[in-house]
Design goal:
homodimer, alpha/beta, 434 Repressor (Amino-terminal Domain), Rossmann fold, six-stranded parallel sheet, six-stranded mixed sheet, 12 strands, DNA-binding
DNA sequence: TTGTAAGCGTTATCAT
DNA sequence: ATGATAACGCTTACAA
């Protein structure tokens, strides 16, 4: 591997001069600069980022930890985060926790030992607090996306889940639905709780009794065949006329389960959900959704993170960005007589 | 930041002893070991991976460069790669080139300066050869996925694109279609060429003349509204009864364009494509596809890479894994009278 | 304008 | 079983 010293030798200068040329710092005569650059070219020199990070005490690398790489909400979010990071000259490491706390914990190890400058992450749930504490101890700046964690102070970019949930419910209710079931993510996740709350509040507002049986709680992802979901559907009576799914993955699992029971959407049963389907939004059936601004979650989150890192000293107050969702009415909801 | 010396001081041993404890190398008395471990706990010590990499001359980090993070083929592939990497104790860095050669080039810079131990990548196209040469110069092991690059020798995991293309065509032909158009990725990409070849060979086999006009070449992704595609469709006559799309993104773009022309699939026009839709496969319309083993592309590719790195000395012959695709017949193809 | 020396946090080598 | 020293490739501080 060619080092700064190889360049220095061949160019008959000191390593320091080479360093200066590389970083455009200090004064170097044009002649020397040209000579050094030429040698770097010849030897195909590429600086060793690790050596540099070691002395600089910063890696110019950020980490993005998402919970489901197969979910278009997160991949679109990733694009946003990537764009923002690169725009500011940071490299980006990705990790994928699969909504799994122990995988998340492993990634926290990686993050800590890898000495990244900061982390943008969607926590797997409330117990992630322990992982975040480890970041805090080490003074690793982080920004939360999509989910808050009780007991943890930090910048965060969130969706307005409760409000969106209410709108989705409003839509169903206005179409005459009264028996509405909820397929939701784990209640140890703040966004799931907010969605549940919106659901309950709208039921109450319409003087409908909340039926515990109508609520099914499972993982937000990744997608799998849900035998649990099937079993739950089997024991439902009266069978709901409509379902609200806590995210797009759950909507897919639900659709899958409904189909295997021979039920058509929207003819036999109506479905709405959180999150749009990325490029698949053009596929039938057009599900009515609360579309979140996935790209912005990533882009803005990354911006908050970079600000935090840049203005490290002036701690400043915690920032919270709440992104509204847009209800896109398509045709997965049937109007009841 | 607490270092190995902090531990050493507090435990009244040398840094070397701490290092031995951390890495379980050499001989350390149980008593000393226990003492050191206790101090590490107390001080919440996490080794500095960069310092370690610097001396070890290896980072235990691999890089995965894909071309479209919004494409489920690549995200599923990523899961496979991630699983394989972690299984062998490697960390994984992701990058996303967006099918864009200059973004790819930037990532090659990152890869080089970051001193990763190896790279698994889907090249953006034949011109990627220049980038791969840079890896070769530096002796950075790499494995190609999905696409080969003329002039570059390397291990590779590929799909059997030509064969799958023929099967897809066979399906269309057997349903009576004769006017079949192809929406394909750039011909500077080997897989696109293979798919075109399969298309042409089947036409020839059935004594159908290849109509240049029936072939539209564009980017494999990421998804966008395709005004070019629209324009192309507009000047097509006779209008094809069926379309073969070179991947799932193109299929979506095509569907989008067809829909805006008021055409239904399969009633008005038939569509088949490469790559399944991940969890969206359950959405209507069920497109008939050549499903590739995305997960295996990543998993096996990563295995090849790790083998290469491990047996670095015994160069061994280039390995080539060809994964067949499975035709999944759904209902996007109409039987013609 | 250029160079020398020390140090970033770790491990390999050689002593003891 | 444990420790001292040098080295990995680079940059900062200081000197010339």
């Amino acid at each position: 591997m060619v080092t700064i010293y190889d360049i220095a030798n061949k160019a008959n200068v000191s390593a320091m001069t080479v360093s200066r040329v590389i970083n455009n710092t200090g004064r170097v005569s044009d002649k020397t600069r040209a000579k050094v650059k030429k040698v770097m070219q010849e030897l195909n020199y590429v600086p060793n980022q690790m050596a540099r990070s070691l002395v600089l005490q910063q890696s110019k690398t950020l980490f993005l930890l998402i919970t489901d790489i197969t979910n278009p909400f997160y991949t679109t979010l990733s694009r946003g985060a990537e764009d923002a990071a690169r725009k500011h000259g940071y490299n980006l490491l990705f990790g994928n926790s699969d909504e799994n706390l122990s995988k998340e914990s492993e990634y926290i190890n990686t993050i800590l030992s890898t000495r990244v400058d900061g982390v943008l992450l969607a926590p797997a749930g409330d117990p992630s607090a322990a992982h975040l504490e480890r970041l805090l101890e080490r003074n690793v700046p982080f920004v939360l996306i999509d989910r808050e964690v009780p007991g943890i102070q930090s910048d965060i970019v969130q969706g307005d889940s409760k409000e969106a949930s209410k709108k989705l419910m409003e839509h169903l209710l206005s179409y005459g639905h009264r028996n509405i079931a909820l397929v939701n993510g784990s209640s140890s996740i703040s966004s799931a709780r907010d969605r549940l709350q919106g659901y309950n509040e709208m039921l109450k507002l319409h003087d409908l009794s909340a039926n515990e049986r109508y609520i099914f709680e499972t993982s937000f992802g990744p997608f799998k065949d849900q035998s649990g979901l099937m079993a739950w559907l089997d024991q439902l009576h009266p069978f709901p006329t409509a379902f609200l799914a806590g995210n797009n993955v759950l909507a897919m699992e639900l659709l899958h389960a409904l189909r295997s029971r021979g039920l058509q959407v929207p003819e036999d049963v109506s479905v709405v959900c959180f999150d749009d389907f990325g490029m698949y939004s053009d596929l039938d059936p057009f599900i009515t959704v609360a579309a979140q601004q996935a790209y912005q979650f990533g882009y803005l989150g990354m911006q908050l993170l970079i600000e935090r890192i840049t203005d490290r000293e002036e701690a400043g107050p915690q920032k919270k960005i709440i992104l509204p969702a847009e209800i896109i009415v398509r045709r997965s909801v049937k109007k009841l007589a």
